[in-house]
Write a structure and sequence with these properties.
The protein is an alpha+beta fold. It is built from three helices and five strands, in the order βααββαββ. The chain has a single domain, classed as Histidine kinase-like ATPase, C-terminal domain (Heat Shock Protein 90). Helix 1 packs antiparallel against helix 2 and helix 2 packs antiparallel against helix 3.
């Protein structure tokens, strides 16, 4: 049976660290540590930051769901700007941003987005048993 943690944060950058810390605690409670916890936390930071930065709905909330089901973890981040689907961006060497989805693609086993009736959801899936994973610096 899947285990799920779901919460919402206000659409503001100052709430991104709280989301990251909450997910880090959930992962630790589930016994997920080391590189996998670092990768999930880093990508949660990227996806939540994208949602609070790009959602054009005033006074919105960003939903965060982490599900442990069988051999996989699935991270989902949703916001009510359902028509603004994310697209990977080729950032130039002098650009400060635009690499988040490339990072998601590199560290997750699979990722994607979907439109729901009132929201869009960007998700990333991670295999729990995978031992070969790119090194990710610890998120703080």
């Amino acid at each position: 049976m899947p285990t799920t943690e779901t919460f919402r944060i206000p659409k503001h950058r100052r709430h991104v660290p709280a989301a990251r810390q909450r997910l880090r605690k959930v992962l630790a409670d589930w016994g997920v540590t080391d590189e996998l916890a670092d990768a999930v936390t880093l990508l949660a930071n990227e996806l939540v930051t994208n949602a609070v930065t790009h959602c054009r709905v005033s006074h919105a909330q960003v939903g965060v769901t982490l599900t442990r089901s069988g051999p996989a973890l699935v991270l989902e981040v949703s916001d009510p700007d359902r028509d603004a689907l994310p697209r990977p961006h080729d950032s130039g060497p002098d650009e400060e941003g635009g690499r988040g989805l490339a990072l998601v693609a590199a560290l997750a086993d699979a990722w994607g987005c979907r439109q729901e009736p009132y929201t869009k959801c960007v998700w990333a899936r991670f295999a729990l048993g995978r031992t070969e994973r790119a090194h990710v610096p610890a998120a703080r």
